[in-house]
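Hi V.,

Quick status before I head out on leave. The structure for the redesign project is tokenized and pasted below; the design run finished overnight.
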């Protein structure tokens, strides 16, 4: 604050001081001074105290002058942020006291410039124009090229500006609260201006002024609150003084207190008038503005008002705006409503006054917990938690249940908020009967809460998501979830008399929750599906993690053997309990002298594997042994001995049982089969995590599989597990060979075993049992991928002898399996084998089929099988889009990255397959409106979209796709005999879906290639059966924006585009055709060089196009050099008897000319092509460096006729000058009709001589 002595005169201090006055004594003085002058509006500029004097100290021409920032406007000072807001406001107040018009003009321009307006309000405008006129004038000063303004600009500077802008308004009102705001001039002017700006159609004005008005209102609310407090204090002092005895009463003090209360009342009335003006003039209109940011500002600030000055604003008249806006369509605004209400419910006193509002809008708040915006849903749950704290009776059981299930949400912030709500509701209420209970153990308070958690877990019927429940409660209830001592007590101890024991289902749920809590404590990250990215643990979190792990080991090293002994026969409990040792700190077994408990644990694991044949339990036992067999710890030898003894027993038992089982001449009974199967299951489960190579199990398993093939009566589960075990044997053998720890002959042995096993699996693909076929297919796919050429990567060239490439028969069998087992209808799925036809079984079967398809697609992606085998997969894209669309699309993307051309060939092959299937079903008369044909066309459209927008990257692939499509369309002759369309001509309609992916040069090349398959009669056909050919040719016609022309095939076109910015010698720019085309030796043009002996319909060969001007190779664009690869080779076509004579064609065209003369004449007259040509200077040596000569030779439709053909014209060469279009905009002005050959060749139109 600036002291009074810092001001210039004592008289100014007494009349216009605006610094701290806690008692409000100077307010009356200032107010009285202004009241004699009368209330002034914006246009009334009567001078006050200090009128006619120069600007205040520290300001020049109304501009700030501090810290070396001379001649800076108020906006620039606030934007720079280098001066303290307090000092800036103090300088402005000082200037206002010297000349309030100049200072106020500076403040008005501050708001205008903060809106992003380049204009400024002058003194003359300030004196003579109304608000609306000023705003209209400023609107004209806006930059129309940009919609940005300071409040919407990004970057740290503008974020800081928004804060500084709001602070400036708050400090300004705070510093002026004792005098200036009551002068009926400054506030009236500012409020009037902001109200007008907030009603502007210019978003920048509306946004900025609304923010300023709302911050101004907030500052006035603070002033009103201070006045209310002062009034209350004054009233209490007055009452205390008046209640004194008459002899002790000070009448002078009573009179002063009465006068002071009157002044404060008058000031408060003034403030209320200002607030009403802002609220009714700005808020009421802008809280429903079209811009979400403006609506959010209004709701945010009204929440502040209700919290600051609850006596005035916390009522239904203002709360209704927040309630209504909770239905806003923008999440940002709904979020502000919830945060505003949270500020009110944090206080129990304020929350009690919101009962009516809560009852009215409670349902809306509850529904917002399912908001599509995650941030809104999180804040809605937090608001309900605050409502729950304020009163238990507000939310019904249905309301709470709608929040409870969100603890299983995949979005972690929502789940954590719901977990906090659940914890507050169920676990935070401690009754008087629970006082004095022990802290730990079965009878403790935590014991009761853990039971409640178990009951909730079971009632939610989502028992497979225990990890999600624990993660949701972890932040607020980790102490409860870490009370493993109480959990163990609940599982092991007998219930007390009168206590209800846990049921088997409840015990299973408790074991699962206990395991999830252990995992959460040791891994310190959310479960799968909730991970929000890898987070680095803090030092405190790491210490907590180590402490928890130590406590878990010490506690469960003793308790786990007891738990396993009690629940040894329970599959679910044992499976979860056996996962606990992997979180142990194994050093504690030694340091804590817990070896006897380790031995007890190993004995219990042996008991479990001996009693169980369930795969999950056996794999859990195997994993536990793997966790305990760590060579880094001293307990390794003890565990390794126990493991070896167990495996020796299993292998010996398996060999003995196998001999009896495979003994010739005897039928194996069910008991023998069961014994073999159970032992084989255990060996497979242990072989997954442990190397059992020293027991040589390959021979036994291969013998078992071979016997199953020969006899055909082997139980399917034995075959499946024998395959799985053999698969593990080969993988462990490969691991040893890759590490270099194997013997010399091990690689040869591995190669033999691998190939023999692959052949065995291939034979099992023909099994009648679906499960066996699926297992054989899955293992084959894995082995083919592992032993593909990829095995030699990363410097492992020594493994080259192990590379195994599937032959064509194996590839065909794998593909047939996919087609038979994957691409089937849901109702036809035979893999359920009598299971109940419910949704769960259907989903499980679908997942199995998706895994099979993904396994095969990986073979395509990694080039293990031929890429063209993917055609049978790709053709199912539309039919099975919902089931496998993502897999097929990703496969297409990966194959395109490997080989674009081959991928394109595969796509068109898939379309050809579908087309052939359609012909087989519907016959050769193709109905292009049929659902089958439309489906193929739609699939082609989807394929086309996968090529993306960059045509240059897919140029060669698209060209090859068209080439294969054209060859397919003309491959088969017409079933109707000579003169009819080819059998597959309708395929061209499908192929046209890819025409848009061709660049202009390639359209010409593809069109020329198409003509090689066409006869002259084909070009003249217009029947419906020829429409696919017509539409495809039209799709290859380059539009008018490409400076092209269409002429009859057989007429050569030599076109030159004279569009050079630099003059070049004509001789240097010309080359003869043979030299040009012979230089094009790229292999990409092979498909254009078709041999003459190919039996396809051939129309008369078109002479090649030659440009009269050739560009220097160094200046050619990429597409120019690429197009050369597709140039037509020079060929001498022998005369063919069935080819129409060239002169006969010309004669026919001249005859047709007369029939269309009237129509063509009108078109020629209407064209303004000649006007454009008159401005072109002809010259053979001119050419634009940035454009290529654009000449095209395409087949003209039979309706286009040549009108004027000079008898002396040389048909072999013809120079045609096209307009010199310098950009796309000019090209789009050219219509296709401009390239009518008759018009171009008419001398009267061109006004140039033809030669």
């Amino acid at each position: 604050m600036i002291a009074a002595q810092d001001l210039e005169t004592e008289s100014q201090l007494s009349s216009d001081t605006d610094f701290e006055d806690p008692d409000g004594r100077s307010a009356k003085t200032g107010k009285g001074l202004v009241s004699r002058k009368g209330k002034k509006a914006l246009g009334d500029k009567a001078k006050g105290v200090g009128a006619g004097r120069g600007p205040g100290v520290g300001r020049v021409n109304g501009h700030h002058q501090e810290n070396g920032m001379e001649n800076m406007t108020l906006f620039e000072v606030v934007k720079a942020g280098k001066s303290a807001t307090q000092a800036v406001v103090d300088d402005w107040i000082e200037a206002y006291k010297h000349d309030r018009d100049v200072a106020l003009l500076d403040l008005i321009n501050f708001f205008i410039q903060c809106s992003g307006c380049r204009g400024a309000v002058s003194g003359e405008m300030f004196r003579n124009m109304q608000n609306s006129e000023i705003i209209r004038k400023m609107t004209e000063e806006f930059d129309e090229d940009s919609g940005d303004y300071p409040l919407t600009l990004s970057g740290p500077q503008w974020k800081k500006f928004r804060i500084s802008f709001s602070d400036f308004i708050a400090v300004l009102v705070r510093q002026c609260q004792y005098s200036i705001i009551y002068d009926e001039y400054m506030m009236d002017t500012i409020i009037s201006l902001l109200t007008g700006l907030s009603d502007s159609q210019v978003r920048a004005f509306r946004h900025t002024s609304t923010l300023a008005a709302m911050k101004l209102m907030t500052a006035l609310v603070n002033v009103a609150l201070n006045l209310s407090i002062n009034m209350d204090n004054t009233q209490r002092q007055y009452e205390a003084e008046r209640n004194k005895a008459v002899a002790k009463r000070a009448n002078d003090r009573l009179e002063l207190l009465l006068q002071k209360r009157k002044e404060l009342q008058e000031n408060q009335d003034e403030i209320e008038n200002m607030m009403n003006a802002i609220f009714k003039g700005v808020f009421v209109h802008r809280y429903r503005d079209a811009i979400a940011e403006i609506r959010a500002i209004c709701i945010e600030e009204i929440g502040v008002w209700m919290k600051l000055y609850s006596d005035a604003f916390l009522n239904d008249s203002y709360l209704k705006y927040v309630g209504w806006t909770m239905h806003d369509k923008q999440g940002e605004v709904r979020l502000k409503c919830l945060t505003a209400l949270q500020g009110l419910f944090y206080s129990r006193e304020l929350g009690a006054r919101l009962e009516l509002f809560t009852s009215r809008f409670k349902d809306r708040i509850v529904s917002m917990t399912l908001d599509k915006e995650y941030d809104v849903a999180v804040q809605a749950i937090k608001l309900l938690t605050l409502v729950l704290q304020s009163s238990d009776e507000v939310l019904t059981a249905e309301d709470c249940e709608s929040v409870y299930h969100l603890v299983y949400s995949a979005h972690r912030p929502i789940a954590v908020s719901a977990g906090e709500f659940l914890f507050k509701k169920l676990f935070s209420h401690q009754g008087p009967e629970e006082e004095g209970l022990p802290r730990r153990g079965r009878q403790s308070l935590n014991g009761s809460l853990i039971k409640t958690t178990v009951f909730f877990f079971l009632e939610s019927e989502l028992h497979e998501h225990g990890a999600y429940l624990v993660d949701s409660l972890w932040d607020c209830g980790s102490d409860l979830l870490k009370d493993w001592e109480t959990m163990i007590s609940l599982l092991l101890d007998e219930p007390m008399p009168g206590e209800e024991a846990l049921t088997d289902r409840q015990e299973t749920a408790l074991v699962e929750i206990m395991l999830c809590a252990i995992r959460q404590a040791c891994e310190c990250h959310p479960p799968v599906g909730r991970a929000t990215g890898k987070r680095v643990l803090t030092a405190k979190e790491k210490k907590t993690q180590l402490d928890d792990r130590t406590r878990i080991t010490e506690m469960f090293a003793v308790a786990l053997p007891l738990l396993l002994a009690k629940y040894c026969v329970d599959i679910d409990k044992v499976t979860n309990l056996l996962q606990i040792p992997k979180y142990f700190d194994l050093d504690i077994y030694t340091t804590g002298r817990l070896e006897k408990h380790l031995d007890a644990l190993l004995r219990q694991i042996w008991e479990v594997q001996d009693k169980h044949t369930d795969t999950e339990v056996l794999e859990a036992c195997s994993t536990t042994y793997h966790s305990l067999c760590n060579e880094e710890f001293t307990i390794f030898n003890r565990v390794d001995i126990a493991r070896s003894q167990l495996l020796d027993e299993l292998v010996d038992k398996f060999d003995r049982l196998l001999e009896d089982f495979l003994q010739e001449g005897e039928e194996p009974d069910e008991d023998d089969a069961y014994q073999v199967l159970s032992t084989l299951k255990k060996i497979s489960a242990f072989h997954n995590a442990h190397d059992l190579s020293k027991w040589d199990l390959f021979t036994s398993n291969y013998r078992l599989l071979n016997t199953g093939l020969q006899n055909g009566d082997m139980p399917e589960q034995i075959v499946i597990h024998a395959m799985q075990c053999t698969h593990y044997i080969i993988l462990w053998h490969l691991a040893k060979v890759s590490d270099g720890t194997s013997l010399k002959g091990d690689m040869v042995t591995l190669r033999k075993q691998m190939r023999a096993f692959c052949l065995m699996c291939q034979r099992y693909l023909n099994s009648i049992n679906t499960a066996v076929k699926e297992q054989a297919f899955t293992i084959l796919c894995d082995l083919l991928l592992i032993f593909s050429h990829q095995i030699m990567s990363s410097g492992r060239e020594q493994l080259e002898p192990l590379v195994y490439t599937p032959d064509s028969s194996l590839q065909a069998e794998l593909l047939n399996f996919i087609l038979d087992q994957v691409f089937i209808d849901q109702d036809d799925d035979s893999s359920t084998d009598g299971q109940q036809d419910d949704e769960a079984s259907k989903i499980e079967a679908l997942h199995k089929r998706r895994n099979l398809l993904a396994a095969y697609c990986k073979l395509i992606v990694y080039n293990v099988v031929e890429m063209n085998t993917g055609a049978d997969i790709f053709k199912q894209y539309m039919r099975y889009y919902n089931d496998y669309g993502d897999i097929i699309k990703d496969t297409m993307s990966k194959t395109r990255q490997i080989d674009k051309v081959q991928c394109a060939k595969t796509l068109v092959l898939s379309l050809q397959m579908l087309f052939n299937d359609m012909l087989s079903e519907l016959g050769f008369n193709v109905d292009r409106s049929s659902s089958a044909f439309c489906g193929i066309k739609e699939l082609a459209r989807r394929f086309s979209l996968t090529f993306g927008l960059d045509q240059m990257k897919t140029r060669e692939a698209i060209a090859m796709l068209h080439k294969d499509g054209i060859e397919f369309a003309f491959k088969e002759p017409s079933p109707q005999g000579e003169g009819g369309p080819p059998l597959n001509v309708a395929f061209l309609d499908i192929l046209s879906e890819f025409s848009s992916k061709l660049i202009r040069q390639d359209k010409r090349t593809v069109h020329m290639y198409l003509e090689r398959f066409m006869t002259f009669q084909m070009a003249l056909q217009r029947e419906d059966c020829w429409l696919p050919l017509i539409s495809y040719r039209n799709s290859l016609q380059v539009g008018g924006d490409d400076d092209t022309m269409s002429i009859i095939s057989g007429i050569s076109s030599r076109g030159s585009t004279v569009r050079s910015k630099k003059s070049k010698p004509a001789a240097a720019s010309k080359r003869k055709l043979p030299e040009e085309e012979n230089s094009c030796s790229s292999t990409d043009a092979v498909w254009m060089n078709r041999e003459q002996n190919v039996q396809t319909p051939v129309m008369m060969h078109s002479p090649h196009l030659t440009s009269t001007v050739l560009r220097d190779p160094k200046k050619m664009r990429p597409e120019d050099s690429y197009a050369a690869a597709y140039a037509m080779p020079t060929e001498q076509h022998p005369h063919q008897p069935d080819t129409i004579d060239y002169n006969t064609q010309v004669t026919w065209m001249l005859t047709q000319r007369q029939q269309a003369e009237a129509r063509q004449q009108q078109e020629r007259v209407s064209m303004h092509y000649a006007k454009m040509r008159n401005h072109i200077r002809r010259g053979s040596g001119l050419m634009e460096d940035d454009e290529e000569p654009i000449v095209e030779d395409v087949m003209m439709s039979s309706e286009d006729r040549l009108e004027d053909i000079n008898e002396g014209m040389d048909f072999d060469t013809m120079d045609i000058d096209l307009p010199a279009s310098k950009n796309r905009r000019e090209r789009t002005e050219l219509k296709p009709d401009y390239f009518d050959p008759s018009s171009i060749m008419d001398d009267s139109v061109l006004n140039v001589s033809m030669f």
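Above is the designed sequence. The first strand starts at residue 59 and ends at 60.

G. will cover questions while I'm gone.

Best,
W.
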